[in-house]
Please model this.
Amino acid sequence: MSFDDALLTEIRDRFAHVERCPFTGERIFFENAGGALTLNEVVETSARLAAIPDNQGRDNPASHALVEVIAQAREDVRTFFDAPGGAVVFGESGTELLFRLIRDACLGAAPGPVVGSTVEHPASRSACARWAGESGRAHILIPHDDATGRVTAEAYAAALPADAAVVTVLHTSPVTGISMDLPAITRVIRERAPGALIVVDGIQHACHGGISLAQADVDGYVISPYKVFSRHGYGVAWASDRLTALAHDSLVGGPAHQWELGTRDTGAYATFSDVVSYFDWLGGQVSEAGDRRARIEAAAAAIHAHETALTQAMLQGTDNLPGLASLPGVKVIGGIENAAREGLVSFWSSARPSPEIVAELNARGIRTHLRKADHYSGNILEPLGQADCIRVSMAHYNSLAEVRAFLDAMRSILN
Model:
């Protein structure tokens, strides 16, 4: 069920550049997987914190206030991830944090192979390839199913060796929008290889909500805040006590088990608190939940329902407009009916080349993205025999009217 018009208007009012690009003017933004829209509050917080000259760790009121902002952000991350304990790590980017967590796991874990899957983004696959080699470990890739775009718990169960030392999991694919059943996969890993360190790429999943590390027993979870309504310039991770106990890059004589190096931008911490506050607010609009975590869960459920309504309309059609499933030569990656889809549809058409379709949509003020069989998307497209596809990625602030405009444009482009 989608948001009603009044609530959707309130939601859209909280974001910058919802309907207009600052460079090209009016447009529909269906490129959210490349980077979601930014909360207005994040823009304001960034400017306010950037102007403060004081550093953390000094004995003055401004410095104390900055330390409080950082401490609050760490608690907000734990609430958002549903992850008590462990360490909250702010870094350069989601990719950088995946490399760091995977590197330290590979260098510090017990003997055994590194295991991932072919569906994963190159951030985790590249880190595993590098650090498996550097630590003298085999690197095993579990094949994903091309038809559904998923790697399942059963696939992990069939291929995972009992001595697996490090295991990586992709929560949701940024190419297809298809999510993996993370709790089911981690249960299998714990049963088959209880000593393994599990690191999860949650970068694409985060803006759709629904993260609960209490339900998925992992050692590391990484997101990129610019893909979840914040801004560029930092990444966020959670690391278990077990992973944190391993050796890390750190200053000689510095605090034990320190992940972060140097003075981080306090504005990064503060702007992620803004994101968590937004989920809290939205949960209060769609439920009467009494505590913050429950409101975040309610927001995630409402986001999923709204985005499902949008993707179903895009695939099946609405208001006498044919959906993608009915348009000439269209093939949807992951299939038309896929309950694991999260707000994203990737497709191609034999009727027209993908680059032409993206260009035509852009000319009509509809922003989508061309994915190529390169180092980012080749693992998905090459097995399908495709050189490229069109990615249409939505978020919960997109509307059914925007989907209608997209379908009307596609009908014209392909007919």
